[in-house]
Amino acid sequence: MEQLTTQRAAFLDVITERRSVRHYDPSVKISRDEIKEMLKEATLAPSSSNLQPWRFLVIDDQELKEKLLPIAFNQQQVVQASAIIAVLGDYEGYKAAETIYTKAVSAGFMNEEVKSSLIQNINSRYSNRAREIIKEIALVDGGLVAMQFMLVAKARGYDTVPMGGYNTDKFMEAFDITDRYVPIMLIALGKAAQPGHPTVRLDVDDIAFWNEMPSSVSEK
Questions:
Q1: Which domain of life is it from (predicted)?
Q2: Phi and psi angles of residue 138, each rounded to the nearest 5 degrees, phi first
Q3: What integer best gives the mean pLDDT of the chain?
Q4: d(Cα 91, Cα 51) in Å, to the nearest integer?
Q5: CB atoms within 10 A of CB 74
Q6: Secondary structure (3-state) at 196
Q7: E strands present in 119-180
Q8: What residues contact residue 117 under an 8 Å CB cut-off, 6+ apart?
Q9: Segment 98-137, tens digit of pLDDT
Q10: What is residue 189's three-state secondary structure?
Q11: CB distance 170 to 145 below 8 Å
């Protein structure tokens, strides 16, 4: 029980101390090996059919961060942070089903018959799906992995801020990203030079409803 209490406390520290940090110490460098470890931990997040359609462009070269700066409307965290993680959705992510489910068979999580059935169903569904629907799935899955990445970073003592404020068209052009991918967000990663300011949240009673939505609930 004591161990569970300690684990819960550590988890609560991560989620309560995470802030959106916009001022970073530019002298702090994070190794590519550690960023890879963080990405690996982040990709334990769930995804539709476990297809993991997220892809990451890690920008840690200072000249490239300077190139990104005007595209991101001159937000200084772009050049101050140790790295910028561009979270992308892959419209053709479903084509990795063979690789994913083969690994699942090797791990003993499923047999060949289940694998073949799943791959056939996925290829059938996705090959005929509208691009907009695939995009919606990728956006949801990308949001899940992005949030997990930010919590992983905080657990390791780093800070982050998710960024939607950038010109996606110019970003794709500047970094030679084809239309196979949809930009989901940028995440600045580094060590805070100034702490992120605390924020407030709506009360749970104002946002959570039991069995019926407010429009059909009698007035109290």
A1: Bacteria
A2: -65, -35
A3: 95
A4: 11
A5: 9
A6: coil
A7: 159-163
A8: none
A9: 999 999 999 999 999 999 999 999 999 998 899 999 999 9
A10: strand
A11: no
**Beta-carbon count within 10 A of 155 CB:** 17
pTM, two decimals, is: 0.93
**Residue-wise pLDDT tens digits, 30-48:** 999 999 999 999 999 999 9
DSSP codes joined into one string, 49-88: GG---EEEEEE--HHHHHHHHHHTTT-THHHHSSEEEEEE
* Ramachandran area for residue 164 (φ above 0: left; ψ -120 to 50: alpha; else beta): alpha
**Helix (H) / strand (E) containing 181:** strand 181-190
CB-based contact 141:90 (threshold 8 Å) = no
Residue type present at position 12 = L
Domains of the chain in start order, with CATH, are 2-216 (3.40.109.10)
User: How far apart, in Å, are the Cα atoms of 174 and each of 69, 96, 171, 177?
Assistant: 11, 27, 5, 8
Q: Dig out the tokens for 114 from the structure.
A: 């289940």
